[in-house]
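Exercise 7. Given the components listed, write out the predicted structure of the assembled complex. Treat all entries as one system.
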Amino acid sequence: MKVREWMIKICLGLAVVGLAAAAQGQNDPNYVSRGEYKALKQELDAIKAELADLKKKTQPEAQEQEKTATLDEALKRTQLVAEASGLGDTKLLIAGDAAAGYTDESGAPSTFTAEFNPMFLWQLNDRLFFEGGLELAIEGPDENGEDSMTDVELDSAYLTYLLNDYVSVGAGKFGTPFTVYHRHFDPSWINKLPFDPLAYADGGIAPDSAVGVFAIGAMPVDHAMTNYAVYISNGPALVTDDPDAAGSLNFDNYSDQNNNKAFGFRVGYLPIREVEVGYSFEFSKPSPGSFETVHSYLHGVDLNYVKEHDRLKGRATVRAGWVWSRLDTATYDPTGALGFGPLRFNNDRDGGYVEAAYRPTKASDEWINNLEFVVRYDQLNVSSQAPGGGDEDRWIPGVSYWVTPRTVLKTAYAFDNKKVGKDDDIFAVQFATGF
Amino acid sequence: MKGYSPKQQFVFWAGVCLATAALLIPGCHSAKKSDPPMDPKGSTVGADPSISQAGAKKGQELFDTVGCMGCHMVHGKGGAVGPNLSDEADRGRSRQWLTTQIRNPKENDPESIMPAFNNLSKENVSDLVDYLMTLSKRKSSQDKMPGEIGKTARSGSGAVGSGKVSVTWGGETWSDVCGRCHNLRTPSEFSDAQWTVVLDHMRLIAPLTGQEQRDVLEFLKASN
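Answer.
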């Protein structure tokens, strides 16, 4: 009985404690009712739905941005390709030189001159390269007083294949690699004086351009750099019927005279970085088919030295070139039909130049810094028995002012000394630019 | 020399000989003092105790980055608008002169066309001056023989035939080969693409090896 009573008492006690706890829970501020819970859950579901909508809306924009970035990149690439291959850029570039001048020569009227020599450089691909050059100049009135003309010449037109690092081969009309004067120093802004040395001028003894094929290149050999050029061309023509020039070589002739090609080469050697020396040789049979066979042997040497000297406070340049022309002795106008023969003479000629220049590049005064002082001695020796022959030499002092690194105002006076005929002193001023 | 032992006489005459030799050999006595150690690029560093090696190193970086190289050439690399600075240390200019030249060139020369770099900090200017005062041609890589260029220098990453290009040797080649015949153009005169065409032309005229052509092109692109 007692146990039963105790059991009932315990149950009642637990019930009282449970009811009290329930009553206390309803008064707790942290208590969430089912209704509140349902409302909150609905609100959370609505927010989730809204977020999902937002995600859906923003996703295309991100994709769009990605697409735009890809397009921008493609556009940049296209622009680069377009810039790299556009006209006037990689494929074709116009360079060259131009000059205007004034020349006063003894025994001839003084005259203003102008010339324009554009070069068209065309890179066809990584290995193929084309170069074409024109010479446009005003030609003065001739001895008969005829009108001046604009002289237009094809200076160069050749296609080159860059075979490997050391060999390039080409064909067309190119500057003859016979000594370096015509290939390196001919452009008016590079030539330190307003005119060419006698041996390299019109009527000289050095070839300036040729039509044919060539191979050219450079390579390091042991402790030095070397370069070379080999060519086969139509060769010069022997003048046989001009009473004033018979026996001389016409290098402006570009057609073969007798189906015998000219062969030539030059090797250059740089023992130290400031000096280049070279030897050139050309062999040809320049006589026309109707004339007796004449062999021509040309030998040439050249020197180029450039150095900035601290002691001299400037840059010193020495350039030199000498050419020996050996032609078989022949009889010109053998029948006397042309009125100056028969004429037979020793047809060995030689000539060249030595040129020194100094520019005070380290002078503190900019005006002095831009001055360049030049002196050249040149000579051409031709047998006095040859038509138009006789030895000639000149001393030519000159002063130049460099307006920009590629634009120069040159002035020079040539003191001429001819063994036959009157001296042709020349005063010349030239304003030249390279572009 | 009576009254002196042979040893004392030897020391006396040896001293006379050494003193005479020092006087007769030009610059001998000062050469040891001024012969500074070489840095890896061949420039002299530490010729003057006032030059900080660390400063010179920072100055070289600044020279390459703040625009000096656009106009000035050092050891064959850089523009040709302003003077070549490869031998700046040999010109005997003071720190003050160089500092003024960077900060306000017109103070040194009213007709100077160089822009004033007055935006550089005092420390940066000092570093640049340190660098400029280390630039000597007496022992620079410019004085290398072509063979050294062709053999020694090119035996590394820029070896001929290696297919690798070298901006440094491109600058050297550009200065040497192009400068042999004419004044140098500033790299900015042509675009990179135009230089590509010009160098095809110059490869045939100079002539250049293919490696030299690539090096020079790389140098011009880097300078542009």
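Discussion: Chain B touches chain A through 47 residues (CB under 8 Å). DSSP finds eleven helices and two strands in chain B.
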